[in-house]
Q: What sequence folds into this?
């Protein structure tokens, strides 16, 4: 929109203009929902009309300017009062990040009747903090009460440490579930001050899975939301909202942003979630309320350049997860058959304790190349050796193709020893409850030919 556009003066005119813009996006959203997963990933809401507004660019532009110019004071007032679509300042919103948010929301709700919204953040941990912190506000109806939440202990080390910080600095009750498939343990941990249930599937690094439908039913019976970190699976392989979850979290820096050119996170929430404490606006559209209020004030905004890199990665997500998941299964089968390997954790193996649940709930969007239903289990596995940590260190140091780093979901295969890296600060007690063995090796399989990944593991094992 330029200063020369003929517009009727006054605040109401800007609000009416905003309704036109919002209506156009609603129509684009409805059109996108009728398309296949890959098409949504490629186009999102960026259609011919959007391109016409951006000098005809067929790829979403990166809006690098930090602030939006306003035509007049009425435009300013309508925009900053959230009375019309606008972006104002990149800490609040931005056109490029908006396209990423809309695409992610569509992909998370793909194949369901769920309506969802998304807010992207500067990191995956920013997303976890933003979502969980908002649910732990004081309850005016229960003065003096202490909020608590119930969470699987099998989660990313940074999440584990954040939750410990909630407990030590704010007195929040954190109730750890050692076995996320133990339904009775979840049920027994809930009381009148519980605010939400939290799970990670498949988890990092234990590669544990949870029964999302069962856990969602339990949460909803108590009027609570279920939060699921689905970073490892991505919406290409698992769509928790369609299984009953209320809020899905991602570190976009992992498999979604496989090129490794951006750090980012996302919170995607269905519309109309159960909350024991919170406003009607939060219940109606949790992610948008996070975006317009807490995210704005905490300043955990994503840079437009990073958003553009992630949009580029997102376009090939389903194809990548299809191929790389099959490679990971081949690697897992090789490791399971090797005499030096004690145990392998990968949901695609029949030996995995959560295999039946994963086989039921995981589904490659739109099936395989022939359109047949297909299950894909993601690109993360973990394994231990009979000789323990000393042998794990020797194998780790002997890798020649696979990178030694704390990253995962990357186009290049990456390995780590969590007990001395990502989960080091949890201490032995924390690692014990999270089932992180001292000699556990976490392996994220990338886009290389699986035979070359297996060859590198074989020479390191030898």
A:
């Amino acid at each position: 929109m330029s200063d020369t556009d003929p517009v009727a003066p006054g605040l109401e005119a800007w609000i009416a203009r905003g309704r036109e813009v919002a209506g156009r996006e609603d129509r684009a959203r409805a059109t996108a929902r009728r398309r296949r997963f890959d098409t949504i990933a490629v186009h999102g809401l960026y259609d011919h009309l959007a391109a016409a507004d951006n000098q005809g660019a067929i790829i979403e532009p990166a809006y690098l300017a930090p602030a939006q110019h306003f035509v007049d004071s009425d435009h300013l007032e309508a925009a900053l009062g959230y009375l019309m679509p606008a972006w104002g300042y990149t800490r609040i919103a931005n056109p490029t990040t908006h396209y990423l948010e809309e695409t992610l929301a569509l992909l998370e709700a793909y194949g369901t009747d769920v309506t969802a919204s998304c807010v992207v953040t500067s990191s995956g941990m920013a997303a976890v903090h933003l979502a969980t912190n908002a649910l732990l506000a004081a309850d005016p109806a229960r003065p003096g009460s202490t909020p608590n939440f119930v969470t699987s202990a099998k989660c990313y080390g940074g999440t584990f440490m954040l939750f410990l910080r909630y407990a030590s600095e704010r007195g929040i009750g954190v109730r750890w579930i050692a076995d996320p498939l133990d339904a009775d343990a979840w049920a027994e941990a809930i009381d009148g001050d519980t605010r939400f249930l939290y799970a990670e599937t498949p988890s990092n690094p234990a590669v544990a899975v949870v029964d999302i439908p069962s856990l969602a039913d339990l949460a909803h019976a108590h009027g609570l939301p279920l939060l699921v970190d689905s970073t490892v699976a991505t919406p290409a392989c698992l769509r928790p909202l369609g299984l009953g979850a209320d809020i899905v979290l991602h570190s976009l820096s992992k498999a979604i942003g496989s090129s490794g050119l951006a750090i980012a996170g996302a919170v995607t929430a269905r519309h109309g979630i159960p909350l024991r404490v919170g406003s009607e606006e939060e219940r109606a559209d949790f992610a948008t309320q996070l975006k317009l209020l807490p995210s704005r004030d905490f300043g955990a905004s994503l840079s437009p350049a990073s958003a553009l890199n992630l949009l580029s990665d997102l376009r090939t997500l389903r194809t990548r997860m299809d191929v790389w998941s099959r490679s990971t299964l081949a690697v897992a089968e090789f490791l399971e058959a090797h005499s030096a390997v004690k145990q392998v954790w990968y949901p695609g193996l029949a030996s995995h304790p959560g295999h039946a649940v994963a086989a039921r709930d995981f589904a490659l969007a739109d099936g395989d190349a022939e359109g047949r239903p297909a299950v894909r289990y993601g690109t993360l596995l973990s394994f231990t050796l009979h000789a323990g940590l000393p042998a794990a260190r020797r194998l780790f140091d002997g890798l020649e193709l696979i990178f030694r780093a704390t990253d995962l979901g990357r186009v290049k295969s990456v390995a780590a020893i969590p007990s001395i890296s990502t989960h080091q600060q949890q201490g032995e007690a924390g690692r014990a409850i999270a089932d992180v063995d001292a000699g556990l090796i976490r392996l994220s399989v990338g886009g290389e030919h699986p035979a070359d990944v297996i060859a590198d593991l074989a020479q390191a094992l030898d």
User: Anything to note?
Assistant: The longest strand covers residues 194-200.
